[in-house]
Specification:
By secondary structure, the chain is α/β, with parallel strands linked by helices. The chain is built from 14 helices and 17 strands. Bound molecules: adenosine-5'-diphosphate and magnesium ion.
Length: about 400
């Protein structure tokens, strides 16, 4: 399958039988009062772990959680992950309360075929984020091969995501493989027309992605707070809406680039406005050129959703990142839920549909359409950097095909 040049060796390409696998996973899960409150990332790592245990590999897992800044911090311990992971795997998982040192090394050396252990948070040591070769080498002593399945951390050049690969044979896990295949295909050979929907709060968060996707897609739909810079560039009043005024010239330049590239830009045609951003506030829908100076737009209106839905219904590929409104409040969630349903419906029409981003995936789940997407990308920053065309250190370090 063409994958846009992201072709890396994966666990399926090696004879892994019985070899001790050191696997970088993304267990950066939300923990409250010592309990994991969302196990999505744990579940996503299960296929690779099972693949390895089924082949008699002792499996040593490592991950970061939160930002402990190089020091142990009990609130960011990976210990709460162990029981949740054990439930998902249907087998016991050993917790090793250090990631480095002789005690941890003895524990991982003693693992028997098919046993699984989880090391403590790699970011409890300063050498992870600085990509210290000594830390990478010490981590490498836990395995005979390195498997990177942490797509969500692949944009970081850390000891556990990339440095360690210098000391062991290094391949992609199954989750990493799928992310690279789907996203690589989207960049290299998308079925056309290719609709990209980008939204969220601020244009500066995603400027580079917008520019990169202009060179790839056929239709670019913009929404959320970010759309305000484009609307203002077209001379429209945006009232009290969130806007980065200094970015208006950039928005104008992007629209010129789109015109030159033959890419159609869809901007909101109606908005949901209110005097303030709070639950229970009076709100109503107005045409986009009728936003009063003392009001703010917090969502796109139904005609704007319909416009994007129509484009999705004839698309061959749809990529979506960013809520089109302040979906956290029910008053301003309809646009985002409408987009979730419209993109999900495009899958049934034969389109390849991909959503990415923490808030966007939360909205897809709220809409109850998660299973209808072709792919929900597990990377936030990593996905966007890949789409920007940046090399990902956690991918670059793996053996090429
Ligand atoms: P993701 O996590 O999916 O990448 P972002 O974090 O970029 O998405 O954007 C999500 C945020 O954008 C949400 O918190 C949402 O409230 C905000 N947002 C969307 N539309 C607007 C708007 N019109 N005004 C202000 N904020 C908005
Ligand atoms: Mg977000």
């Amino acid at each position: 399958m063409p994958d846009g040049g992201f072709s890396r060796l994966t666990v399926g390409d090696l004879d892994v039988q019985g070899r001790r696998a050191l696997v970088r996973v993304d267990f950066n899960v939300p923990v409250q009062d010592g309990r994991v409150v969302d196990a999505t990332r744990i579940a996503a790592a299960v296929p690779t772990i099972k693949y390895l245990t089924d082949r008699g590999c002792p499996v040593v897992l490592m991950s970061h959680l939160g930002r402990p800044k190089g020091k142990p911090n009990p609130a960011m311990s990976l210990r709460p992950v162990v029981t949740v992971l054990a439930e998902h795997l249907g087998m016991p998982v050993t917790f090793i309360p250090e990631a480095l040192g002789p005690t941890a090394e003895a524990a991982t050396a003693a693992l028997r075929p098919g046993q699984v252990a989880l090391l403590e948070n790699v970011r409890f040591y300063p050498g992870d984020e600085t990509n210290d070769p000594a830390m990478a080498q010490a981590l490498a002593r836990h395995g005979d091969l390195y498997v990177n399945d942490a797509f969500g951390a692949a944009h970081r050049a850390h000891a556990s995501t990339s440095g360690v690969a210098a000391f062991l044979p290094a391949v992609a896990g199954l989750l990493m493989e799928r992310e690279l295949a789907v996203l690589g295909n989207l960049l290299a050979t998308p079925a056309r027309p290719f609709l990209v929907i980008l939204a969220g709060a601020k244009i500066s968060d995603k400027f580079a992605v917008i520019r990169s996707m202009l060179g790839k897609c056929d239709i670019l739909a913009l929404g959320g707070g970010m759309a305000n810079a484009f609307l203002a560039a077209n001379g429209l009043e945006v009232g009290q809406s969130l806007i980065e005024r200094e970015r208006i010239p950039d928005a104008a330049a992007l629209m010129e680039e789109a015109a030159a590239a033959g890419v159609e830009i869809l901007l909101p045609v109606d908005r949901v406005i209110a005097a303030d951003l709070k639950a229970g506030i009076a709100h109503h829908t107005v045409p986009v050129d009728k936003i009063p100076a003392d009001m703010a737009a917090f969502d796109i209106g139904p005609a704007s959703v319909e416009q994007i839905a129509a484009a999705a219904s004839r698309a061959g590929t749809v990529f979506w990142n960013g809520p089109v409104g302040v979906y956290e409040l029910p008053e301003f969630a309809a646009g985002t839920l409408g987009i979730a349903h419209a993109v999900a419906a495009a899958t049934a029409n034969g389109a390849v549909t991909v959503a990415a981003g923490g808030d966007s995936l939360a909205a897809v789940n709220d809409a109850g359409v998660a299973r209808q997407f072709t792919h929900l990308s597990t990377g936030g920053g990593a996905t966007l950097e890949l789409l920007e065309g940046k090399p990902l250190p956690g991918v670059e370090c793996l053996a090429s095909r």
